[in-house]
Amino acid sequence: GYHRLVNPGDPSVYWQTLELVRDYISTWTSRAWDLKDNLDLASFLGFLQHNGFPTPLLDWTSSPYAAAYFAFEEVNDPAPASDNIAIFAFDHAAWSRDWKPIYDVQSGIPHVSVLMSQSRGNQKQILQQGAYTFSTVHDQEKHIRDYEARYTAQHGQAQTYLTKTLISVHEKPVAMRDLGLMGITHMTLFP
Prior knowledge:
This protein is 45% helix and 15% strand. It is built from nine helices and five strands, in the order H-H-H-E-H-E-H-E-H-E-H-E-H-H. Helix 4 packs across helix 8 (172-181).
């Protein structure tokens, strides 16, 4: 992924790669992205994320059903890696209210920032009801948990931004059947 490609001390190499990749992709898609414009940059990163290119983005969905689909889809049926899948809910509104976002691709400051990119030209983002966090840290969960503790220490009251729900992997057949009946399938999420 992105964090294996980028030296935290020199993110400019990734920026140069983005410019090169943008030129090639623009030729094939007939769409030009202005990487100096924050909205276009966010849109381009979202496009790259949904097409398998390493980005500093982590996919989120506003649909708990799509989240369940993605979590169960990853289960190796013959040999599950664990007994449970995890579905995370992120209170992005509280996070954005309490902590200043950073949207500079070349920033070396450790951060997690909510990124609501335009979905124009990114059909998968629309179908998956997608949003992103933009980050320079490898472990976003740890970073967010550290900031929960930081908020609690600064304000004297607990703050939870991230909620984790565990569901047994043995629920996969029933869950996937029910999700399919709701129209949430590989075909509808990845046309």
